[in-house]
Write a structure and sequence with these properties.
The chain is mainly alpha-helical and about 375 residues long. Helices cover about 65% and strands about 0% of the residues. Helix 7 packs antiparallel against helix 10 and helix 8 runs antiparallel to helix 9. The longest helix has about 35 residues. Bound molecules: fe (ii) ion (2 copies). The site of one fe (ii) ion has 5 residues, from helix 6 and helix 7.
Length: about 375
């Protein structure tokens, strides 16, 4: 039997509908054990020209959250929630009849939309902290001096991204949400893995790739000029980060064995399915006192949501193709393992979209 896209789930509805526990919500600290070897290098030769170029560019592209963002712009979350073109309140496009949303008044429904925006931005903020920690790890573990230099600039970039979202949430929106339990699990896995290339693959390619697609969508369509400004600044950094990941891994993956390649393909596939079907606004429904499982199911099945979640792969697929992971294992025209799996997920349509190296070059040209 041919596998259909909608048959592929990373867990039962009960698992997908989970949120962090109340006790965890009260805790300000979350600790993960990471048994990672820290690597010094005594080879200071600047031998990787493209990484050198990225590092030089990163040094002159630093921006300041306090002075480069126009914080005087007023934001009315309720007005934005009512804007039919707002991409952050995709819930507003849901069919309410026959769902737990049916009994809500219009005001309650739009309150939910405003909360949904805050939820998306809260997850961006938590994800940015994940990037901050992963990049600090890359500084410690990557064996090349050019990559250590570059990663150090990314640590600063990610600190700035956490700062900018935290400030936007605190100063401009009504809510801040705890981390989505599935995002936390993904970050925990990436942080705990001792292999430096897995930190890159998990953070720089998969999570940042997904974020870059989400930011791009947000940038094109947000009705909030302040958020548009913030997103433009963050995206310019993020495109550089994904380009750094692709450049580094292309070199590292040239010498992998077939078994090592397959392990990485499986990791990418599992992360992809989880990222596709686990970010469903669970904490918003919980906050609103709505039945989380039923609302999660509405989100999971709504046709517009299904399409939106596919678009989130528009950066990941071309980058995995560029890394050789998409087609590794293909023999005599028969698709390799990952190509077949991504075909089942319905995301191969993006394989020839611009990869992030090319996109980054273009964004630099546009910025001149
Ligand atoms: Fe970031
Ligand atoms: Fe980043």
């Amino acid at each position: 039997m041919v596998t259909q896209e909608h048959d592929i789930r990373s867990g039962s509805l009960e698992e997908l509908a989970q949120t962090v526990t109340d006790a965890e919500k009260r805790e300000a600290i979350h600790t993960v054990r990471a048994a990672t070897d820290v690597t010094f290098t005594w080879d200071y030769e600047r031998s990787r020209d493209q990484l050198v170029k990225l590092y030089v560019k990163a040094k002159t592209s630093q921006w300041n959250v306090s002075t480069d963002i126009d914080w005087d712009i007023d934001v009315d979350p309720w007005k934005i929630a009512r804007d039919p073109n707002n991409p952050l309140n995709t819930t507003m496009a849901l069919e309410r009849a026959g769902t737990p949303f049916e009994k809500l008044s219009d005001d309650e429904w739009y309150d939910l939309g405003a909360a949904q925006q805050a939820w998306v931005l809260s997850q961006f903020m938590h994800g940015e902290q994940g990037a901050l920690i992963c990049t600090a790890q890359i500084v410690e573990t990557v064996p090349w001096i050019d990559a250590k230099y570059y990663a150090a600039t990314q640590v600063m970039d990610e600190a700035r991204h956490v700062e900018v979202y935290a400030r936007y949430l605190r100063d401009k929106l009504a809510h801040e949400f705890p981390i989505n339990v599935h995002l936390r699990a993904l970050l925990d896995d990436v942080v705990a893995d001792s292999r430096w290339d897995m930190t890159y693959l998990g953070m720089q390619i998969m999570i940042e790739g997904l974020a870059l697609a989400a930011f791009g969508f947000q940038y094109q369509t947000t009705p909030d000029p302040l958020l548009k400004q913030i997103t433009r600044f963050v995206m310019a950094d993020e495109a550089r980060h994904v380009a750094f990941g692709v450049l580094s891994l292309k070199e590292a993956y040239a010498d992998l064995t077939g078994a090592e390649v397959r392990e990485r393909q499986e990791f990418c596939y599992e992360a992809a399915v989880k990222m596709r079907d686990r970010f469903l606004g669970q904490e918003v429904w919980e906050w609103a006192g709505l039945p989380v499982k039923e609302c999660t199911k509405v989100m999971l099945d709504a046709p517009m949501q299904v399409e939106f979640r596919k678009v989130l792969f528009s950066k990941i697929v071309p980058n995995l193709k560029k890394l050789g992971l998409l087609d590794a294992g293909s023999v005599n025209g028969n698709p390799g393992w990952l190509r077949q799996k991504f075909g089942e997920l319905g995301v191969l349509q993006f394989e020839d979209w611009e990869d992030t190296g090319a996109e980054y070059e273009r964004m630099q040209l546009e910025a001149v």
